[in-house]
Design brief:
The chain is α/β, with parallel strands linked by helices and 757 residues long. The chain is 49% helix and 17% strand. The chain has 25 helices and 21 strands. Helix 3 packs antiparallel against helix 4 and helix 23 runs parallel beside helix 25.
Length: 757
């Protein structure tokens, strides 16, 4: 029946495309104002709004203005970064538009799904995600309609049944005519493979833990101040006057810039990866790559080239060799050629054989293990020798001279008798050996997966220096020594999910490469699921990363991106924890030792705003690639940060003590403390961003320029007495000298600790 069905001509398709438009639904435009308002309704905003209300009740109008500016800045900055992230992901999503096998001018071709028009004849295979509503005209399908019904139930489709855009073909194959596209389809939207999640995977967890540690410290120090104020003879009015300072201590703890910093860093790396041949379908894939310590790699198409050639052909039948090869080509899939189909067809053409098409063809499935065609009175089966030998019981006796370990085998049955065996070999990619060595150098254990037999898998493993055992999946169990494992042979697609879960249970952060519909569950389960360049649409939708080029080199780029994001957020976390702890401890000890809080409230607000502007730029900072898997140990980072803050606080308290005993007024001391805190925040960032001494490395241009702007603004405010007491050039230079000495002393102690971290 399929031979009688024809698609549109290109001229007809072009005319319909002008009339109906592209097969896509324009996404709602980003509403900056709506996003801005949403940033005023979250935990961080509520704390700022409560502080703003408190300042107004107490009549602190100048401080209220600063808090309001901070609140508006946080909302504006968050909306701006969301807009930038949305733009990045939208640009990437266009590159992930699925391709469709469509017949135009009686020729099958692959086109972007957005160019489909009603009346197009398309070919459907397992793993395809429908890009338009269609009517089945040939074959049988089973589809997953959970994307439109919400129920994960397989729905069978017969001829004349309608299948809808956004659903996935899970079984069967066939031809279908497009009935509705774009806004006219039932789903009302085109397929989008990008997960536009606004919250990266670890962001909320990291944010919560940082707030927890800072609020714990602030709460403890606030309690000390309250108790000390009563012991010092204070009354309720004195406590009320201190409320704005206590409120600001908590405001300083809010990670206002963290979501923006994280979004900026992830978007920055997603854009960078897209230029290097890797599309990011889920931003969490980038940050999880830093923690990756084991990766499961498909042999075919990843370690080896995606081109397979027939290395050996043996004819066991009494038929003429060319006739047998001609019948073999009838059992290859001409609509949707796989690697083996293409290899056998190319070999047949080289032998002078014409490709023969069958009216009665059944594609290969993993359930049957073979494809089948009926032609010229012959029943032809092409596929797994293991499966076909169950049909011809004499097959094993015929193949005693065949070396199945020489490569991948493909058997041919004619009228249910073994007629021949193809031995096919994949060529190892030129970059595979070096890329695998680089993965191992970075602490990632690569394990090769293949459906080939153990001998073939072992031969490939030796070529790429994968040392260790290559075992059959049948010998893979709880007692398998992972440290000695180089590869697993005889793997079926359905085995992969079990293996991913097995390694995760053992405590590994797992990466996984895949291309087929049956790989999708494993890709989704893995922390870093990577769909290779020739993957089915559903596999690309399931993975967090999609490769545009073949081979392993791109995976190393994903690791690098993950480490860069991890290092920037480590720097942000250390900087935020350290400078906030320093601020609160210095003010608390100042009050305990000298009976006043040694920093003006206005200066405290300005200090908080300026620091948030600098730390936000960390998302673009220069980094150094590390060669070991990372982990988000916030408790450890908190200990390091608080130790760092303690050093700065001790030096600051000593300096304040000296100033108070040598005739400096409280106002002058307050401004000098403000300058000291700003400079210490700048130095803390420079110290924590590198494992070298801070004077041996330099930040990115964005970070550096923002720091310089902050320092210049600080000098102007201090010298002209804007929102604080005016100080002299001499006092300013003294403060600079103290901060520089403190930075050198702290760094001399800090760097040896970080190098051993």
């Amino acid at each position: 029946m399929s031979e009688k069905i024809t698609g549109l001509s290109q001229a007809e398709a072009d005319k319909l495309l002008k009339e109906k438009g592209l097969n896509e639904v324009p996404e709602p435009k980003f509403n900056f104002f709506k996003e801005f308002l949403s940033k005023l309704w979250n935990l961080s905003a509520w704390i700022l709004e409560a502080a703003l209300l408190l300042e107004c009740i107490l009549g602190k109008w100048i401080q209220s203005l600063f808090v309001l500016l901070m609140l508006l800045f946080a909302a504006w900055n968050g909306a701006t970064q969301k807009k930038r992230s949305r733009r990045v992901l939208n640009n990437i999503s266009h590159k992930l538009t699925p391709t469709v096998s469509v017949q135009r001018d009686n020729q099958w071709q692959n086109i972007d799904s957005k160019y489909l028009v009603p009346g197009d004849l398309i070919n459907l295979q397992p793993g395809d995600v429908l890009a338009a509503d269609v009517k089945l005209v040939d074959g049988q399908l089973a589809t997953d309609e959970s994307s439109i019904t919400g129920e994960a139930k397989t729905v069978h489709k017969n001829i004349d049944d309608t299948a809808f855009a956004g659903t996935t073909v899970v079984e069967g194959s066939g031809l279908a005519v497009v009935t509705a596209t774009g806004s006219n389809s039932r789903s009302g939207k085109t397929i989008n493979l990008i997960n536009n999640s606004a919250a990266p995977g670890h962001l909320q967890q990291l944010l919560t833990k940082i707030i927890y540690y800072l609020c714990l410290l602030d709460g403890f120090l606030t309690l000390i101040i309250i108790i000390a104020s009563f012991f010092k003879g204070g009354d309720l009015n004195n406590l009320v006057n201190m409320l704005p300072f206590l409120a600001m201590m908590f405001i300083a703890s809010i990670p206002v810039a963290m979501p923006s910093t994280f979004a900026l860093s992830n978007s920055f790396e997603a854009t960078r990866l897209s230029k290097e041949g890797v599309l990011t379908a889920d931003l969490t894939g980038i940050q999880d790559a830093a923690n990756l310590n084991l990766i499961l790699l498909d042999k075919t198409g990843t370690i080896t080239e995606n081109k397979t050639a027939v290395a050996q052909w043996t004819n066991f039948s009494e038929l003429d060799n060319k006739l047998v090869l001609e019948l073999a080509t009838a059992a290859t899939d001409q609509r949707n050629k796989k690697i083996i189909d293409a290899a056998i067809d190319e070999y047949a053409i080289e032998q002078g054989v014409t490709i023969k098409a069958s009216d009665d063809f059944t594609p290969f499935t993993s359930d049957t293990g073979y494809s089948m065609a009926n032609i010229d009175g012959y029943n032809v089966k092409l596929g797994s020798f293991k499966q076909l030998s169950l049909i011809d019981k004499t097959a094993n006796d015929k193949v005693k001279e065949i070396d199945f370990g020489a490569g991948r085998s493909c058997a041919l049955l004619i009228n249910d008798e073994l007629a021949g065996v193809f031995i096919l070999q994949d060529k190892v990619r030129s970059d595979s050996k070096a890329a695998l060595a680089e993965l191992k150098k970075r602490g990632v254990r690569p394990i090769m997966l293949t459906g080939d037999n153990q001998k073939t898998a072992l031969a490939v493993a030796k070529q790429v220096d994968l040392t260790g055992d290559v075992i059959s999946i049948h010998n893979f169990d709880e007692n398998t020594d992972i440290n000695q494992l180089a590869g697993i042979a005889d793997v079926l697609p359905e085995d992969k999910l079990r293996m991913v879960k097995f390694f995760q249970k053992k405590g590994y952060i797992v990466g996984m490469t895949g291309d087929g519909v049956n790989d999708s569950p494993a890709l989704k389960q893995a922390e870093v699921g990577i769909a290779v360049s020739n993957a089915a649409d559903v596999a690309k939708r399931s993975g967090k990363m999609v490769l545009l080029t073949d081979g392993l080199s791109s995976i190393v780029k994903i690791l690098d991106a993950g480490h860069r994001v991890y290092q920037r957020m480590t720097t942000w976390s250390l900087t935020k924890l350290a400078r906030t702890a320093e601020l609160t401890m210095l003010l608390t000890f100042g009050y305990l030792f000298f009976n006043y809080i040694p920093m003006a409230l206005n200066a405290m607000v300005i200090y908080t705003i300026m620091n948030n502007m600098v730390t936000m730029m960390i998302g673009t900072d220069r980094t150094h690639i590390t060669y070991k898997p990372e982990n988000w140990n916030i408790a450890k980072l908190a200990k390091i940060a608080f130790s760092l803050a303690f050093g700065w606080t001790v030096i600051g308290v000593i300096a304040v003590g000296y100033l108070n005993t040598h005739g400096f007024s409280h106002g002058t001391v307050s401004t000098m403390v403000y300058v000291y805190l700003v400079l210490s925040a700048m130095f803390i960032l420079l110290i924590t961003r590198t494992k070298r001494f801070f004077w041996q490395d330099y930040p990115s241009k964005a970070v550096g320029l923002t720091q310089i702007a902050d320092v210049i603004l600080t000098i102007i405010l201090a010298l002209f007495g804007i929102a604080m007491t005016k100080i002299s050039w001499t006092n300013l230079l003294i403060t600079f000298a103290i901060a520089l000495v403190a930075a050198i002393v702290v760094d001399l102690v800090y760097q040896p600790i970080m190098k051993n971290k």
